[in-house]
Amino acid sequence: MKGLIKGYTDSCTLVKARIDELTGLRNSLKQLGDTGRIEELDLDRRIKLLYNEYEQMQEIISDLSAYMRRREKIADS
Fold it and tell me: How far apart (Å, rounded) are the C-alpha atoms in residues 59 and 67?
């Protein structure tokens, strides 16, 4: 179970890094006034999807952690 949680945590780190990368690119293009390129790359949609994925993974981590705590509590009884 701990390995599964660690895998999700590592994935969250990678997704967050990608969000930061795409957000930086979008901001750079916006400063240059290249909104066409932002739309061409579909950056807003991609960033939104990554945020949704990140939130879902955070929920899974929370659920798995709670489950693991409950199992440990039962085992200690």
Answer: 12
